[in-house]
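Entry under discussion copied across for reference:
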Amino acid sequence: MGYPSIVGAGENGCTLHYEENSKTRIGTDMVLMDVGAEYHGYSADVTRTVPSTGKFNPQQKAIYDLVYQAQEEIFKICKPRTDFAALNAKAISVLAEGLVKLGIIKDKSDVGIYYPHSCSHHLGLDVHDKSNYGALKENMVITVEPGIYIPVNSPCDKKWWGIAVRIEDDVRIGKDQCELLSYLAPRKSEDVEKTVAEKSALDNFILPKLPEGKKAF
């Protein structure tokens, strides 16, 4: 692992670096999974948020699709000479407009209540690789990770409470556009639902029988 896995169901997903991973009764909550493998010293950093029921409910889908929209808009400006700060400015713009339309905030300036972090960081030998965070250059590898987190008792309609969504991908800055490195992990809400519906390879996985009297762990 490139870093300790972050797996939060429901409101636990609102804790950005939640590592307890102790909630076993998920109910109809979504599950936010921020995980990354390390290979030859280089770390990946990918987040997916999936519906535990297999289908997003209307509120979950609205938030998920808004985060997806923000990520798509950020990808468009991931190119050389774009100032790093412009990536987060784009995230703030899209998320703020969307939250106002959904009635979750009244003023765009309140977007920080539900989007408390920046959308990108450099990725390499460290999961948060060092940089001066200036203009993007060709062959840099960065994350793109907008998110929305609505804890219980937030100042909005309670139908939104407990929803936490982050979609995070790793991209390489190319000459004119970015290359999505984590493209094999589905991102669209419809594709996520299709993937969740697939049978797991572990469903028919048969473990060898243990010798009499021995425990598995």
